[in-house]
Amino acid sequence: MGLKIKVRKYSAKEILCYLFLIFSFIPFLFPNPIVKTNIQPYAALIGTVILLFHFGTLFKTVQSRNLALILGSTFAVALVVTFALGASIEALRGAYNYYALFIIPCATVIVMDILDDFPEVLFKTMIILWFAVATIQFFVFRGFATELISSVRWSYRYRGVVGLASEPSFLGITCFYFLHFIRRFKTGKFLFSVLTLAMGVLYAQSTTGILFIVGFFAVFLLDEINTRRGLVVWIAAVAAVALFIYYVNTRPETNRLYQLYNAFFNGGVDSVLSDGSASIRYNAIGRALGNAARNWFIPSGFGARIGSAYGGMLVELGIFALPAILLISYGFSLTFNKMRSRVVYYIVITILLLNNTQIGNPLLLMVIGINFYYRLKAVKAKQYQAQEVAAESAEIYQSA
């Protein structure tokens, strides 16, 4: 008897969904020949196709409808500002971020609804791919695979590696996004958390990346208090800190982690902020918020390079960016289960996203979309339970 191997057939709709997720996971790869930019548009373009065919899905619930209306309105404002203040290549690039901000979270909700399950195997595969590339760069050759990355900035020593991102800080922030996906895994959470931390801290060696990761784990530990695995999580956290301190103290002084660690323990936060890269990012936040306030939060348009995500939105769109900012922070807060953790994380993520990160990054936007999908799923489950209770009560009443 011959061995029969069952091969699952995927529909065109499912293939499109998986392509969307894959390109969302590798937003820096395969530079397009038209516009030079860090983030590539492939995920947004595929998401547009998905949205065109399944836009009605977003209006099945109040939550997903509000998601589409708020982000769609923000994109509409961005278009008005673009053409009202003079369209240019730089302006169109700026407006693209708001296009992606509208398309990708909405498309993610639709994709999750079509697949009807969290694609855990795909997400694990993509994280392993990032880890494999970063490991080769760290131990073998730092320029490995960088020819595939748009606007890449890497160095032979001192700084961290880039992985599949365009610079070490973006690798660190990418790992921060990965931690949100890992929260949804059914198996292998610990292993993939370790791999992600290795990438985000040891490989990237970025002040900004470490700041994001520490912010996540501070709220994660708060969320795990009084749970069965809470003690194990806290022990693992203490062990991780101990290993980190040991690692940086056994590295040569040319190691960037050692420099940051030494600066913090000798001079505190001020000393860290005086570091060249860190101070540039810190000062950029102040300039962005100051410029927005001096302009009375009236849209200033696009063109100027602003080293702050939320600060940039407030400069570019003024007060009209506020609904989207509130929604983004709310979307991230849904990562955690307990209300207190969500409130704290809402504040933490709002502070973190004042830093220099791309608001049009598909990884960031996928976090929002996935969290909204699970929120909608929870709402639907409650509605179903309420209907079941109502039906049982009606039966009892009729039988009586």
Brief characterization of the structure:
This protein has about 400 residues and is mostly helical. The protein has helices spanning about 10-25, 40-55, 60-85, 90-115, 120-140, 170-180, 190-205, 205-225, 230-250, 255-275, 275-295, 310-315, 320-335, 340-350, 360-400.
Topology (SSEs and partners):
Blueprint: H1 12-25, H2 42-54, H3 62-84, H4 89-115, H5 120-139, H6 168-182, H7 189-203, H8 207-224, H9 230-249, H10 256-273, H11 276-294, H12 309-317, H13 322-333, H14 339-352, H15 362-399
Helix pairs in contact: 1-2, 1-4, 2-4, 3-4, 4-15, 5-7, 6-7, 6-8, 6-15, 8-14, 11-12, 13-14, 13-15
What does this structure look like?
Helix 2 packs across helix 4 and helix 13 (322-333) packs across helix 15 (362-399). The longest helix has 38 residues, at 362-399. The model has no long low-confidence stretch (mean pLDDT 83). The chain has a domain at 118-374. It has helices at 12-25, 42-54, 62-84, 89-115, 120-139, 168-182, 189-203, 207-224, 230-249, 256-273, 276-294, 309-317, 322-333, 339-352, 362-399. It contains 15 helices and no strands. With 400 residues, it is mainly α.
Structure characteristics:
globular
Number of strands: 0
Low-confidence spans: none
In this structure, how is the largest beta sheet organized?
A: none
The fraction of residues in strands falls at under 5%
Radius of gyration: 22 Å
The ordered string of helix (H) and strand (E) elements is: HHHHHHHHHHHHHHH
The general outline is globular
The separation of the N and C termini measures 62 Å
Q: What's the overall average pLDDT, rounded?
A: 83
Supply the helix-strand structural class.
Answer: mainly alpha
Helical stretch count? 15
Instruction: Give the % helix.
Output: 55-70%
